[in-house]
Amino acid sequence: MPDFVLPPPAIASVAVAGSAERFAVRRIFCVGRNYAAHARELGNDERDPPFFFSKPADAVVDSGAEIPYPPLTSNLHHEIELVVAIGKAGFRIPRAEALAHVWGYGVGVDLTRRDLQDQAKKAARPWDWSKAFDRSAPCGPLLAVAKSGHPEKGRIWLAVNGDVKQDGDLAELIWPVADVVSICSEAVGLQPGDLVFTGTPAGVGAVQAGDRITGGVDGVGTIEITIGQPRS
């Protein structure tokens, strides 16, 4: 065994529905503007090829977590998403074979510092600081494909303090899961442990400290998080 200068960090992981086992997370990829209505609400209205951004693996937190309101923002947004968990490695995966690389599915929230994202867009700079911050990728328990199948339609929703803000259907995905997996694998070799957040429906909006966020995807699962006070 190699010696390390510092102790290796803990392995990031997500709960597995109905099991004490956990799914070790390797990388997190996210798809932008994958629902037409959401693209329109952000001022875009084209079926462009999907584009990706990433979050660090340790941005993932379990359902039930309290997430401190992050620094550097006054406009933190919720984005509910279907999450794909990769279980089989692949590079340049044909679309017809893409679903065979999926281990399971979950429900995630892509937390976004929208004001920082808007600033980055205007300056033609990377989005990292708006997307890839601490605890920015809460994810509910993953459900294995053997139990979920491959969802192609079904309600995807999010509520803030019980008030529904996002309410869509997976059938509205511009690029379905097979396309997303195949296209992502053109740029990187996907590996077991990779998570892919597949995009959010319309209705994204700001949350404040003290807000309770709940959401779900029919046939896949639910998620619940609370936005806490900023870290001192």
TrEMBL record:
EC identifiers of the protein: 3.7.1.20
Pfam families: FAA_hydrolase (PF01557)
This protein's name: Fumarylpyruvate hydrolase
Organism (species): Mesorhizobium shonense
Keyword vocabulary terms for this entry: Hydrolase, Metal-binding
Recorded superkingdom: Bacteria
Molecular functions per Gene Ontology: fumarylpyruvate hydrolase activity
Fumarylacetoacetase-like C-terminal domain segment(s): 28-227
The UniProt record lists the keyword rRNA-binding: no
